[in-house]
Write a structure and sequence with these properties.
The structure is a single chain. The protein is α+β, with helices and mostly antiparallel strands and 402 residues long. The protein contains 13 helices and 21 strands. It folds into 2 domains: 249 residues, 3-Layer(bba) Sandwich (FAD/NAD(P)-binding domain), CATH 3.50.50.60; 139 residues, Beta Barrel (Elongation Factor Tu (Ef-tu), domain 3). Strands 1, 2, 7, 8, 9, 10 and 20 form a 7-stranded mixed beta sheet that branches. The protein has a 7-stranded antiparallel beta sheet with strand order 17-16-13-14-15-12-18. The protein has a 3-stranded antiparallel beta sheet with strand order 3-6-5. Strand 9 and strand 10 form a beta hairpin. Helix 1 packs parallel to helix 5 and helix 1 runs parallel beside helix 13.
């Protein structure tokens, strides 16, 4: 038996950023919306993002800042819901914010303000939100059940809806409740998946590189890092397990197993010219001591132990050997064994194949009324507010039509 109170125009699975944005967008069109989530609180990923201050968008976000097998897919949603649209909502709620760097916007106070904003907007739009509700099954209903197309079995009973939106995120950070349910739903309805991987994550190493990283744990350098043909200028941090910091996280999004990463340790300087200038000015210091002027001394020592053990005064150093060493400083190659994994990764690369979805509405081409938004889709942004902007844009776009 079905109760009308369990029948909705739209049911959204997942009360994260994308799910709530979709809910308020649909509710404002007069649709009766239910948002379901197994978590105990709203917006778990929002709450822990940006060190608790939520890097809620990036003013420079464009489709070029995203990785997907279809690089054009994000254009439609992002052109219709831009960073300025979400910023306007933040300002409407009187939330103070600041730009940290490179267009990254953070709350001055707490990420809880962004969750409260979305919760208030959902309430004003008439959305019903049910937390601590586990989904045990989804069925596509027969024609005679129209307008209802889906029945969702949950720990709180069965619900029916005309439209079903999957906003369940990826596999990243399981401690806050991440599961693969969104992908399972896609597979159940015959949608293809792009292989998934932990991304915006630190690198791990084996052998000599692992020992090097352990010995340099805590050392940070400003560098250029290249992976998969994409270059970032950010800080790199050595850890006991490998490499972290913004540079490593950005590079991990473009890295694939078996590939090397290339690091320019001193992008501001031409090191061979720098050493020649030192020699011209009469320096008789050894290379490792000179290198400590521009790199952390512990790092300079390790690099020279590995690549330039020569302890002759600079005027006696072979220019050929010095030039080769400088070339390595500007293109130091390391081959990661892997990434730290989903426990620490900020996002999941891959997911529901975008060829299965309408870029305008996010509806599955094969299944009328079924939508996928946010991280569950094969659209993954750089570090720095880009993934939240995709959540807002994809959620808003689906909310306009569900």
């Amino acid at each position: 038996m079905h109760s009308e109170k369990n029948d909705f125009d739209v049911i959204i699975l997942g009360a994260g950023g994308a799910g709530m944005m979709c809910g308020l967008s649909a509710g404002n069109r007069g649709r009766r919306v239910l948002i379901l989530d197994h978590a105990m609180k709203l917006g778990g990923k929002i709450l822990i993002s940006g060190g608790g201050r939520c890097n809620f968008t990036n003013t420079g976000a464009t489709p070029a800042n995203y990785v997907s097998e279809n690089t054009h897919f994000a254009k439609s949603a992002m052109s219709r819901y831009a960073p300025g649209d979400f910023i306007a909502m933040v300002e409407k709620h009187g939330i103070p914010y600041h730009e940290k760097k490179l267009g990254q916007l953070f709350c001055d106070g707490s990420a809880r303000e962004i969750v409260a904003l979305l919760e208030k907007e959902c309430a004003d739009a008439g959305c019903e939100i049910r937390l601590e509700t586990r989904i045990s099954g989804i069925e596509r209903l027969a024609e005679e059940s129209r307008p209802y197309r889906f029945e969702i079995a949950t720990s709180a009973g069965n619900f029916r809806s005309e439209s079903l939106v999957v906003a369940l995120g990826g596999l990243s950070i399981p401690k806050i409740g991440a599961t693969g349910l969104g992908y399972d739903i896609g597979k159940k309805f015959g949608l293809k998946l792009v292989p998934r991987a932990a991304a915006l994550d630190g690198f791990t190493f084996a052998g000599a590189d692992a020992v090097l990283c352990q010995g340099l744990s805590g050392v940070s350098v400003d560098c250029k890092i290249e992976a998969g043909g994409v270059v970032f200028r950010e800080n790199l941090l050595f850890t006991h397990s490998g490499l972290s910091g913004p540079a490593a996280l950005q590079a991990s999004l473009h890295w694939h197993p078996g590939e090397a990463i290339t690091i320019d340790l001193l992008p501001e300087l031409s090191m061979f010219e720098w050493f020649k200038e030192k020699k011209k000015n009469g320096s008789r210091m050894i290379v490792r001591n000179l290198l400590s002027e521009v790199l952390p001394s512990r790092f300079a020592e390790k690099l020279c132990d590995l690549e330039f053990p020569d302890t002759l005064p600079l005027p006696q150093v072979s220019e050929k050997n010095l030039e080769a060493f400088c070339a390595k400083l500007h293109a130091w190659k390391m081959k990661p064994a892997g990434t730290v994994g989903y426990s620490k990764a900020e996002v999941t690369r891959g997911g529901i194949d975008t060829n299965e979805l309408s870029s305008k509405t996010l509806e599955a081409k094969k299944v009328s009324g079924l939508y996928f938004i946010g991280e569950v889709v094969d659209v993954t942004g750089w570090l720095g507010g880009y993934n939240f902007q995709w959540a807002w844009a994809s959620g808003w776009a689906a909310g306009q039509v569900v």
